Amino acid sequence: MKEFLFTDRDFKEIADLVYNACGIVLGEHKREMVYSRLARRIRERNLVDFKSYLAFLKKNKDQEFDAFINAITTNLTSFFREIHHFEFIKSELIPVLLKTNKHSKRVRFWSAGCSTGEEPYSLAMTLNAAFPSDWDVKILATDLDSNVLAKAQSGVYTAANVNGLSEQQLKRWFLKSKDGEAYKVKPKLQECIAFKRLNLLQEWPMKGPFDLILCRNVVIYFDKETKDQLFERYANILSEQGHLFLGHSESMGKEHSQYKNLGKTMYQKGSNARGI
């Protein structure tokens, strides 16, 4: 028998709240996950069941809603995850940007769903020294979850977190703790990154244009209508031939004719993009 009563009505109400807040679809297969994650909130608030927690949430939205959303959202990432994307940036995208942006000397990347920071830091490592020193190169890193965003900003990782990085990368970009169990990103790597909390379904304060948007393993949680709206908004904020990268289990329908499919979940905006 479970610790807290969790009815079908409770689950539906939670699923509706999450969908309306951030577009994430919680199917029946997510029920156990929802129970285990929100059970912690119920304990912390000294409540008796999910019904009482939902009542508390309604009365104390300003106080509790961020913690509620943080508990539900999933964050799984690693440095240089899906390495082919970073290889494309290094070998294909950077040489093109050096030519197309040579007059503005401005480059903008957006890690949309940056989680605990491994993605934007991997991007910063890839971009390092790729552009002349007088260029304005910036990375925007956003996430809905304020907890993981705080970890990303701190730039502190365990030895297990950095396991996939080479000794050269670790020495160049991280400060190692005396016991060897913690690694902190050096300030030099953080200089070009701005971490901001953002709900992708709400208004975006930035205007762009972005040369590349990484939205990997984010839209997998959205329904088709929400995905389509998001792809349209990304197209509007990308540069004329900007790129959009999705996660390995995500895809974009052919109806999005403003994008060309480059393969390996990489898409390019514009009529001159090379498709496959």
TrEMBL record:
GO molecular function, one term: protein-glutamate O-methyltransferase activity
Keyword S-adenosyl-L-methionine included in the entry's annotation: yes
Function noted in UniProt: Methylation of the membrane-bound methyl-accepting chemotaxis proteins (MCP) to form gamma-glutamyl methyl ester residues in MCP.
Organism: Pseudoalteromonas fuliginea
Ranges where the CheR-type methyltransferase domain occurs: 1-272
Top enzyme class: transferase
Binding site for S-adenosyl-L-methionine: 75, 77, 81, 119, 143, 199-200, 216-217
Any one biological process term the GO annotation gives: methylation
Entry keyword annotation includes S-adenosyl-L-methionine: yes
EC number: 2.1.1.80
Protein name, per record: Chemotaxis protein methyltransferase
Cross-referenced PANTHER family: CHEMOTAXIS PROTEIN METHYLTRANSFERASE (PTHR24422:SF19)
InterPro entries the UniProt entry points to: Bact_Chemotaxis_MeTrfase (IPR050903), Chemotaxis_MeTrfase_CheR (IPR026024), CheR_C (IPR022642), CheR_MeTrfase (IPR000780), CheR_N (IPR022641), CheR_N_sf (IPR036804), SAM-dependent_MTases_sf (IPR029063)
Catalytic activity line of the entry: L-glutamyl-[protein] + S-adenosyl-L-methionine = [protein]-L-glutamate 5-O-methyl ester + S-adenosyl-L-homocysteine
SUPFAM superfamilies assigned to the protein according to its UniProt record, in alphabetical order: Chemotaxis receptor methyltransferase CheR, N-terminal domain, S-adenosyl-L-methionine-dependent methyltransferases
Top-level taxon in the UniProt lineage: Bacteria
Keyword annotations from UniProtKB, A to Z: Methyltransferase, S-adenosyl-L-methionine, Transferase
